[in-house]
Amino acid sequence: MNISTTKTELQKAFSKLIKTSQTKTQTPLINYTYISAGAHGVILHSTDMEVGIKTTITASVNAEGEGLFPTSEVSDIISVIDEGRVDIEVAGPHINIKSEKGTSFDIPTLPFQEYPSIPENRHEDIYNIKTQDLKMVLDTITYAINKDQLKPALSGALLSFSEESVSFVSTDGHRLVVIKMVNDSNLSEDFIIPKKYLNMLGTFIQGQKESSLTFSNGHIFINNDSDVLYSRLIDEKYPNYNAVIPEDNNQNLKVQKEDLLNSIKATSIATNKNTNQVSLNLSKGEVSLKSINQPESKTVYAPLKSAEYNGEDISIGFNSIYLKEAISNYPSNEVNFTFKDNLSATLLLPEINERNIIILLMPVRINE
After folding, report:
1. Which domain does 107 fall in, by range?
2. What is the model's pTM?
3. For 305-340, b where at least 16 C-beta lie within 10 A, e where not — what string?
């Protein structure tokens, strides 16, 4: 295989491809990029066996063929090579990369025949969504996905299609985020999408007005011009999240997002680092956050000046990290809480009388 391209083309491609590389892996091929040159052009592909990226570059094909690039090493070479034309030749167990000014790199590689097969997109089930709506969903749900790999069903976000609506759901058992939209597709299935894919998706869809998610053969695919980002779906059953959403929270609190975030940051200074506990204290005319760290004799009291509350006196404990993440990713400048009591689930609703977006936080027992 022999191709000619430019440093700019290679930099653009490897800035995407390197995202699937892993520093620690029992599968060395994960850290290699597959290249195919022929009548179809020049295609580069990298995968970590879960998420994959395929991109096409502009290049002249002098000799057709296939090969593998050690992703990180080639990325480093591209960063230091001269600007302008770059010639790449794969011959047997070696790759030669040569710049227009004559700088040459000769590095070893592995047989391309051992590289994992690329999943086929049969364009079976397609869901179209405005890119700005998809970005809002990603910004709102991703933080609540479970980090514990021992619970694989929760290590991704649920995309649940019913006849009328589509729900985007994430939870780690301590918090829950649900976003509902109208289902304009013909889909009526559930899909669990890995967190890594969702983290990469926000950058990948930039520049598009509409994003098309395709579900095919146990994978999710999305295209952006000549690029394809795909992932294996999580083959598990998602828990019944609706069972934990309360319907009878009758105490309402309104507070400005910036005011609340500043108070969370202040009280977090004195929290016990084992529990990260703060208390939200509500009474008519006064709402505050408070943290007490008994072993270190620290106390922080932070009144919420923007708060509006006319309900019963309640003190609710929260994990300050979970509370901060929920508020930071809240899709409105005014935060609406609904409570029942100090031990029941708390809801954050951008609109009190609507449930298109639900953020749920489980309280913790207050230990002072």
Report:
1. 2-114
2. 0.90
3. ebbebeeeebebbbbbebbbbbbebbeeeebbbbbb
Secondary element (H or E) of residue 265: helix 257-268
Q: How far apart are CA 176 and CA 144, in angstroms?
A: 7
Structure confidence at residue 118 (pLDDT)? 86
Last residue of a domain, one of 92, 114, 136: 114
> How many distinct structural domains can be found in the chain?
3
φ, ψ dihedrals at 275, nearest 5°: -110, -25
pLDDT digits (tens, 9 = 90+) for 185-210: 999 999 999 999 999 999 999 989 99
- The domain that holds 324 is classified in CATH as 3.10.150.10
Name the amino acid, one letter, at 161.
F
Instruction: For residue 87, give both structure tokens.
Output: 């010639």
Q: Give the 3-state secondary structure of residue 20.
A: helix
| Statement to judge: residues 61 and 134 lie in one domain | no
Instruction: Name the token pair of 310.
Output: 């006319």
Coil, helix or strand at residue 76:
helix
**296 φ, ψ (degrees, to nearest 5):** -110, 5
Tokens 């952006």 correspond to what residue? Answer: 224
